[in-house]
Write the structure tokens for this entry.
Amino acid sequence: MKILLTGATGYIGKRLIPILIAQGHAIVCCVRDKNRFYVPLEFKENIEVIEVDFLKEETLNVIPNDIDAAYYLIHSMAGSADNYDELEKASALNFVLKVNQTQAKQVIYLSGIINDNSLSKHLSSRKKVEEILNTGSYAMTTLRAGIIVGSGSASFEIIRDLVNKLPIMITPKWLNTRCQPIAINDVLEFLSKSLLNPVTYNQSFDIGGPDILTYKEMLLAFAKAKNLKRWIFTVPVMTPKLSSYWLYFVTSTSYKLASALVSSMKVEVVCRDTKINELLDVKPMSYEQALSRALIKVKEDNVVSSWKDSLVSGRFKTNISAYLKVPKKDCFIDRRKKEIIDRDFTINQIWSIGGETGWYYGDWLWGLRGFIDKLYGGVGSRRGRTNKHDIHAGDALDFWRVLYANKQEGKLILFAEMKLPGEAWLEFKIIGNTLYQSATFRPRGFWGKLYWYSVLPFHGFIFEGMLSKLIR
């Protein structure tokens, strides 16, 4: 069968691809930018990649008409725009318009549990999208999930940050709100078993694990799994804004995502029923089992996808293709080069940069820069990286975004997502026996030029030291 997969670069989409291929399906992956979608060599025969932006009706013509089913996994989740609910509505309308013209028999939509009359803006938007998708001429299947627990999920990463960093937590009262978490493996099983399965047609189902827990209980269970002693006290005085700042400064989340999460976490998300478990013969694992699996994946450096690699986690507002060509005109450029001793060693060093490995020289200055960025509302450097030794175009890397990564060519280009009075690129490339490293800055007005000259004295030892460590 030919399956249309939207949100193919997202946390769920990336993990669903190998499952659908194993089931024998051909997949048409919808992406806004082909340059930030990595297709493993073993999947290339089963995947067709098309560039589609569902906010732009003129791009929809590339969607083939002979698809058998489609997954709707598009989710802005408090992106850079304040009117993300309107954007989600427009995206859903365009999707229905196009899929109605195809041979698709079914659309599967992953939404959030919405069994409360007082919904957050985020959950209200999810509900509105579901209503729009239900107007199509195909059979509609909606799966509603609450907190998804898995390595790289936003929920898991926030819980991990809080527990690892705070032995004692003074927390908002919404930590006593109940929810029904579900393991990412179970979400994927529900999604794949619902595909072209008539028992799921024209229905909506709540999906969740067997445990109903408060957020406080989830944090304490994580601490227990890590053998950490943690004390949590809830207070009624934290406003939503203060709660959002609390999450923003302690975890790797962005402020807008923190705000959306806080407003949603005040609403109880518990399954109305679990009849789909019997319909599809799925036995969801417990929260403790889900945590155990996620922690093993993190320990083995085998995280398939992470919410941090979504553009929502940073400040990037456009396709990375527009920034691939590093400019020279009206730019300040710091160029350095060194003869390499061992090409493989140098490439492995470059491909391991950032995250837990650090930046090889002056790490405390890189950390200070990330802290200052966080104070001014930037992404900071807590995002780290999804994999310790492997990176692809589109990945987040501390406060950088990977624009281009080609190991065989020996070339890596990063674009700065920290707050700057301008735009910045960091490029590494190996030509022959020489490693070339260049830091390019395109200033924005007087403040941009002042910024460049203020950090210029640090470039000498930071970039020179880093270059030397990349060689030996």
